Amino acid sequence: MSRLGAWRSILLVVLVVWMATDAFGVVTRHDIDGVAEDAEARRFRAVCKILPDGEGVLIAPDWVLTAAHVTTSAPVDVLRARFAGIDYRISEVIPYPGWQPGRADIALMKLASRVSGVEPLKLHDGPLEVGQRVWLAGRGDFGDGLRRVVGNDGKLRIADNALFELKTDRLAIRLDDPDTGALPAEGISGPGDSGTPLLVDRDEYLEVIGIGSVGYVPSGGPYAAYGSVDVFIRTSYFREWIDSRGGRAR
């Protein structure tokens, strides 16, 4: 094989891995931008940025729930959880045993100190149904269904969606375009938002139902285009493990 052919093969492998394993700012329908107003952002204060790359959610004053593959992005002493501009050190990482992208891709992060001024979110234990409205937020790469991924400006974006697929251990949402029934703030997570929580409203409070893991396109096209599917790990399936490992979810 020529050197050019070898590089093309490597590039193809990289692209396939990114589309299949990188859970993904927020990608929205093309006629909105999703940037959160201050009042909206306050509802999502428990959603944190995991440095160097990812998101998570505070489920107890000193525990963050995220995707297991986010915890592999750097050594524990380098990882940080950022809440309201303050970086919190991570003292311990506990990934679910045998996790894989899209399967049991969930982990607990023990913070070295308690987060002040942020109310942890509860894990939702109630029933769910296909078509149920859900929420997500993130600060990773943003874009829309027409332009796909555009860039990253560090702004918090919020989107809604409806459950597209409901399984025992996983949940999925899909990016629909405005002509096929998209919700007013329709969106999915984008690159850099692995570990972001999928949320439902319950009694005016947000509760966690999933943790972002992978994204894919059934048609085989580029992720973030209309039709892209965003897969989340269903937290209720792992609730016993979360509690037993010390997460003490509310």
Total beta strand runs: 17
The amount of helix comes to 10-25%
What count of structural domains? 2
- Please trace the helix and strand order, writing H or E for each element: HEHEEEEEEEEEEEEEEEEH
Let me know the CATH homologous superfamily of the largest domain. Trypsin-like serine proteases
* Total of DSSP H or I helical runs spanning 4+ residues: 3
What structural class do helix, strand and pairing data support?
A: mainly beta
CATH class assignment of the largest domain: Mainly Beta
Query: Radius of gyration, rounded?
Result: 17 Å
In the CATH hierarchy, the architecture of the largest domain is Beta Barrel
Described by strand count, sense and barrel closure, the largest sheet is:
7 strands, mixed
Shape: globular
Low-confidence stretches: 1-24
Q: How much of the polypeptide forms β-strand, as a percent range? A: 35-45%
CATH topology of the largest domain: Thrombin, subunit H
Distance between the termini: 57 Å
Mean pLDDT: 82
How do the helices and strands line up, and which of them pair or pack?
Elements: H1 3-21, E1 26-28, H2 38-43, E2 47-51, E3 55-60, E4 63-66, E5 80-83, E6 86-95, E7 107-111, E8 122-123, E9 133-138, E10 142-144, E11 148-151, E12 157-166, E13 170-174, E14 187-189, E15 197-202, E16 205-216, E17 229-234, H3 239-244
Parallel strand pairs: 1-10, 8-16
Antiparallel strand pairs: 1-14, 2-3, 2-5, 3-4, 4-7, 5-6, 6-7, 9-12, 10-11, 12-13, 13-17, 15-16, 16-17
